[in-house]
Amino acid sequence: MMLKTVLRLPVCAALLALAAGCAMIPPEPVVTGPLTAPPPPPPQPSARPNGSIYQPSAYGNYPLFEDRRPRNVGDIVTIVLEEKTNAAKGVATNTSRDGSATLGVAAAPRFMDGIINDKLDTDISGGNTANGTGKSSANNTFTGTITTTVIGVLPNGNLQIAGEKQIAINRGSEYVRFSGVVDPRSITGSNTVSSTRVADARIEYRSKGVMDEVQTMGWLQRFFLIASPF
Predict the structure, then answer these.
(1) What CA–CA distances, in Å, run from 99 to 33, 102, 117, 132?
(2) pLDDT digit string (tens) for 17-65?
(3) Do 72 and 150 touch, CB atoms closer than 8 A?
(4) Where do we find S-diacylglycerol cysteine lipid attachment?
(5) Using one digit for the tens of pLDDT, what is the confidence trace for 187-208?
(6) Closest CA to 81 of 180, 207, 2
(7) Phi, psi for residue 60 in degrees, rounded to 5
(8) Measured in Å, how far apart are the chain's first and last C-alpha atoms?
(9) Helix axes 2-23, 219-227, angle to 10 degrees
(10) Distance of alpha carbon 193 from alpha carbon 150, whole angstroms
């Protein structure tokens, strides 16, 4: 009796570990990498500016006669999310096949009259018909705004941007993540750019909380769904 109890303990522990591992599998993130620019190095002491009208230290690294569009690491760009996709697919297949065969004996030896008689007059026919149809459609709309940070500048001048917005409501939280590459010439004077003009755009919208847990299938239900042969 003691031996059976000892043998059952590892089995129960393995089942509990398996259940804990399958309890909640977090989805893989779409946006990977840093979501903000690294902190800049501490400023070096410089000589006191003596200009009476224009002082470079008061305007950063921007020239006097150029706008303040983002061009350096750490600058801010506002992305206007205007994603809308529509996809539809339809398939129709019709096949048909007919066949026939006739077999008859016009003459046979006399000693086989009682055996054959009229049984060899055979007519065989067959047909095969198959019809199949399929249709699928998908619609996706995502609108909003998110402010990102320039995390890198490519050799050709394009900007690598990334950002995250988190919103906590009651006991749940939602976050939007965005990353991509944007041409500085696409940025408007109000420091905004449409998401449709961002290359390699990755948009992620996730939620955590009670509503997200309700939409997730339980681990035991997933186990029986995988093990079921039907």
Answers:
(1) 64, 11, 27, 22
(2) 555 455 455 666 766 777 777 766 666 656 555 555 655 555 555 555 6
(3) yes
(4) 22
(5) 998 899 999 999 999 998 888 7
(6) 180
(7) 70, -140
(8) 38
(9) 100
(10) 13
Instruction: For residue 101, give every residue at least 6 positions away whose Cβ sits within 8 Å of its Cβ, in sequence order, or none.
Output: 123, 124, 125
Q: Is 55 helix (H, G, I), strand (E, B) or coil?
A: coil
Residue type, 176: V
State the average pLDDT for the chain.
74
* Token pair in block for residue 51: 């200009």
Quote the radius of gyration of the chain (alpha carbons, Å).
36
Judge if pTM exceeds 0.70.
no
Q: How far apart are CA 202 and CA 162, in angstroms?
A: 9
Token digits for 129? 């018909």
- Backbone phi, psi, residue 84, to 5°: -150, 120
- Does residue 81 register a pLDDT over 90? yes
Amino acid making up residue 43: P
Backbone angle region of 200, left / alpha / beta, with phi > 0 → left and psi within -120 to 50 → alpha: left
Cα angle value 150/155/156 (rounded, 5°): 90
Check pLDDT > 90 for residue 86: no
75 contacts 150 by C-beta, under 8 angstroms: yes
Determine the number of helices (DSSP H) and then strands (DSSP E) in the chain. 4, 6
| Contact criterion met (CB below 8 Å) for 139 and 86 | yes
Closest CA to 162 of 207, 198, 197: 198
pLDDT tens-digit series, residues 102-140: 666 555 555 555 555 555 566 667 777 778 888 888 888
